[in-house]
Description:
Blueprint: H1 20-24, E1 79-80, E2 88-90, H2 93-98, E3 110-111, E4 128-133, E5 139-142, H3 143-149, E6 153-160, H4 166-172, E7 185-194, H5 195-202, E8 210-219, E9 222-229, H6 230-233, E10 241-246, E11 249-250, E12 260-262, E13 275-281, H7 288-291, H8 303-308, H9 311-314, E14 326-331, E15 337-339, E16 346-354, E17 361-367, E18 375-376, E19 378-380, H10 384-387, E20 390-393, E21 396-399, E22 410-417, H11 418-423, E23 426-433, E24 456-463, E25 466-470, H12 482-488, H13 511-515, E26 528-529, H14 531-536, E27 544-547, E28 550-553, H15 565-571, H16 577-583, H17 586-590, E29 596-600, H18 602-608, E30 632-643, E31 646-652, E32 667-673, E33 680-685, E34 696-702, H19 714-721, E35 727-734, E36 737-741, E37 744-747, E38 750-753, E39 756-762, H20 766-778, E40 785-792, H21 801-808, E41 815-821, E42 831-832, H22 837-843, E43 850-855, H23 858-870, E44 878-880
Parallel strand pairs: 4-13, 26-29, 39-40, 39-43, 40-41, 41-42, 43-44
Antiparallel strand pairs: 1-2, 2-3, 4-5, 6-7, 7-10, 8-9, 8-13, 10-11, 10-12, 14-16, 15-25, 16-22, 17-18, 17-23, 19-22, 20-21, 23-24, 24-25, 27-28, 28-29, 30-31, 30-35, 31-34, 32-33, 32-35, 36-37, 37-38
Bound molecules: ligand MTE.
Ligand MTE binds next to strand 3 and strand 8.
InterPro entries: Cbr1-like_FAD-bd_dom, Cyt_B5-like_heme/steroid-bd, Cyt_B5-like_heme/steroid_sf, Cyt_B5_heme-BS, FAD-bd_FR_type, Flavoprot_Pyr_Nucl_cyt_Rdtase, FNR_nucleotide-bd, Ig_E-set
Pfam families: Cyt-b5 (PF00173), FAD_binding_6 (PF00970), Mo-co_dimer (PF03404), NAD_binding_1 (PF00175), Oxidored_molyb (PF00174)
Binding site for Mo-molybdopterin: 161
Amino acid sequence: xxxxxxxxxxxxxxxxxxxxxxxxxxxxxxxxxxxxxxxxxxxxxxxxxxxxxxxxxxxxxxxxxxxxxxxxxxxxxxxxxxxxxxxxxxxxxxxxxxxxxxxxxxxxxxxxxxxxxxxxxxxxxxxxxxxxxxxxxxxxxxxxxxxxxxxxxxxxxxxxxxxxxxxxxxxxxxxxxxxxxxxxxxxxxxxxxxxxxxxxxxxxxxxxxxxxxxxxxxxxxxxxxxxxxxxxxxxxxxxxxxxxxxxxxxxxxxxxxxxxxxxxxxxxxxxxxxxxxxxxxxxxxxxxxxxxxxxxxxxxxxxxxxxxxxxxxxxxxxxxxxxxxxxxxxxxxxxxxxxxxxxxxxxxxxxxxxxxxxxxxxxxxxxxxxxxxxxxxxxxxxxxxxxxxxxxxxxxxxxxxxxxxxxxxxxxxxxxxxxxxxxxxxxxxxxxxxxxxxxxxxxxxxxxxxxxxxxxxxxxxxxxxxxxxxxxxxxxxxxxxxxxxxxxxxxxxxxxxxxxxxxxxxxxxxxxxxxxxxxxxxxxxxxxxxxxxxxxxxxxxxxxxxxxxxxxxxxxxxxxxxxxxxxxxxxxxxxxxxxxxxxxxxxxxxxxxxxxxxxxxxxxxxxxxxxxxxxxxxxxxxxxxxxxxxxxxxxxxxxxxxxxxxxxxxxxxxxxxxxxxxxxxxxxxxxxxxxxxxxxxxxxxxxxxxxxxxxxxxxxxxxxxxxxxxxxxxxxxxxxxxxxxxxxxxxxxxxxxxxxxxxxxxxxxxxxxxxxxxxxxxxxxxxxxxxxxxxxxxxxxxxxxxxxxxxxxxxxxxxxxxxxxxxxxxxxxxxxxxxxxxxxxxxxxxxxxxxxxxxxxxxxxxxxxxxxxxxxxxxxxxxxxxxxxxxxxxxxxxxxx
Length: 881
Ligand code: MTE
């Protein structure tokens, strides 16, 4: 078990403080906290928690390059909850907890409804916002004025997304929200100005009751905006502020650079980022995001009912403001194992708790017997340390001694006897606040899946000598958690007993099934769609995408999509079943028939890898490895560096005598998941190992590294980064061509006899060509002739040269191999330049029994296609891999 790097008070062991000058430097950009000490305080013996060490990300991640957020450098550890864009992320729960009381900005959760507004450092202090509406003196204030004309304060504040722990709700029944784990919260020291000071200067009129806020992010339904009550803003105990610094540095772009509202004690949705307007009104905000977001509708309101009846959304009683009490177990971690042999007599369980409206968490209780008996955990309130000091920090005054409200999370811990944990089935935690609000035993499911706060349960399973712990879920699409396990086993998570089978219980029907599947296709539409048709719409103008084998045209929805057009464009031409089903609500699904254009034909389904089935785990391993319907796992066994950018990867099959099962001329698909985004990357490859090799297979892969002209090859980079012993997934065979031998080919299942192969390839396009060539030459009976045209840039780029030469030796009458280089060395005796139609024409002749096999970069394939047609070749004589 990894120990959290906090002391018993929940304070990071190594306290990093800022130098005085640095702390006073309020003008951006300010450097990250390093070391030094707070020296200007007369209460310097009191240690206050200061931010953990931070590293400001400087490079945009590859995944963000094609999105509107390409200007925002981010930390790759964050778990993306809504695909690549918009950016909605949480840190791994253990990483968040281990940071201690304050979270470094790069690990702080992010909830962005759309693209991040771009603000240059030099423009920050000129950023303006207005105070308008029901005020005597409407004003426009620049950030510079805010920093210089008002009193500056620094407060520790925990922000919590109302969706924190929503994945648990989605496991019970899909809500209209994406799947947050239990790390949708973070804490920072915010520096800025008390909001009421600014409002007072504008002199609110008597009728003003609400303060509406608006950000600079333009979304499909207008600018992001919401409102809070004016009397809350004016209440000093509530600490509403306008902040421009977070942990002593300028706000990072994802967190509202350069200015945001920070509303302590309330859901994060009220803390408007990139703040442009404060508007005083008589009624709550009519902003689309205020009305259709951040509500807990009554539990019986289904997604359909909420979509059909607007009254649910405009009833302000269902809007959420104050947070409710909540807690989570951080240790034991998900999938932590505790070895009973040699274990200490107690295990220290720990985690976090928070409540809303400034209410203090007054007790945290833990049970090992499903709530029959409870034990009291110890609580540390790191926030209270700041009440003991009065000093300046990061250019703002810490002045909290007079205020009793709690704005931050607290940490609880309890020593549990190991023997009692071993005898238990689960550990639950629940918290209570000073108003005696206690977390409920049962989940309150609602359409938006917000404010989920039932007792947090970690299951315990005895496996041999080990105890294995499982959290309820893992965020986003990440598999794992006891809820998923229980559901797969047919348990009903809504049965009041966490899906455990009850005595006398007959059949268990999950509430998903009760709710029925929402139809997503146009009634009566029968329009088979080929893979080529789909690929024609693999662009941003008219993007088509596939969900469960059905094809949808996203063009008309580009402007309206709540996540922005980019989310649809990213799915163009792809099977997005996993992502779509996991992220979208039943309301979104109900809209799908409108965009339905047809169904993929069978060949297209195979090509797109939909309809995959898990192989039967109990079946004895097959004679051949590949399965065209299921992804199979092959473990990376070895890696040979052939050149600076070329590798031969060896993968281990399921058993030592197993063959790959790939006919000559066909390919297989390889799938890897991006560890950060869980996005699947799929490419097809042809192995270079012999088809009859047993137990192993080898693949020659050219690694496309990032350089000035591009970000590199996603798949080849991921394959290169995979450690030995880790698996990749394969599926196949695929391809419309197969070489049977002695000139016999199968093209889309039809026989064809060939006397001459014209083989044209570039770069790693040699691999399928090499398979066929080797099959021809290895067989002395095979009279088929092969002429290979192999184009490369440099001599060292020529792949499989030795193997090709070895096969050609003594077989000159059956084959010719022509290499041509575009950047040949002076002593190169071979051909120079690209492969052209003329080169092919002058070194081969078109006959009716010739077949051209072509594999290379798209541009080369296009050029050859055109040139060969001009020379009298017909399309059925050309085979593009
Ligand atoms: N402000 C703007 N302008 N746009 C947004 O998308 N998201 C809100 C809030 N403020 C949002 C916004 C929500 S729902 C949350 S939970 C918090 O910002 C998240 O703040 P963070 O991303 O800094 O953690």
